[in-house]
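TL;DR need structure tokens for one chain.
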Amino acid sequence: MPTTGPPGVLLYTRTTDYRHASIPDGIAAFRELGADHGFAVDATESPEVFENGLAAYEAVVFLSTSGDVLTPEGREGLRAHCAAGGGFMGVHAAACTEYGWPFYGELLGARFARHPALQPGTVLVADRDHPATRHLGPRWDFTDEWYDFRTVPRDTVRVLASADESSYDGGGMGADHPLVWTHEYGGARVFYTALGHTREAYRDAAFRAHLLGGLRQVMPGHTGGLPTGA
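>> reply
TL;DR here they are.
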């Protein structure tokens, strides 16, 4: 991993299934966070980047990717990045990605199943001892698609926040509905947030702090991630 210069983040936004209109807003948000907090962001939809090696990047972020977005060689490139201690972060539809690759599902922690209509709801913040959630109160009102997942990943991940299904219509997981979590897998520190459907989310200060906190954890070139004073 690089040891000099600003840490590098690869922001990957390729889609071969549903494409979120908020992707350009997400790219802009990550670039602005990078400019403000001292890390470089390369945004791409080219799978060849993964085939050519990821040594220039301390973290890879899948931002609302969907469908099969990597070649077989690219899959091995991502696996090697993780094995070398690189960080991985998934945002929103990253859970709708690479359904046929078991490693990716285990890396992310859970796979998307369905969602109800876009609507306001409440996030229950259970763990505030993390840079992605420590700025939040115990309840966080938000508007999103409130993803359901095929499995509850609680046994294999550290759950930071969950959905309060009583706060919106159409939830399908019940009382235990993780939305945000972290763990280590394949050598990588991993952070995932199911939030981030709307364009407005990426202009929201609390959500931007949430994304920045995820990066602070997964970037291995810095103790605990990016310095909190960056």
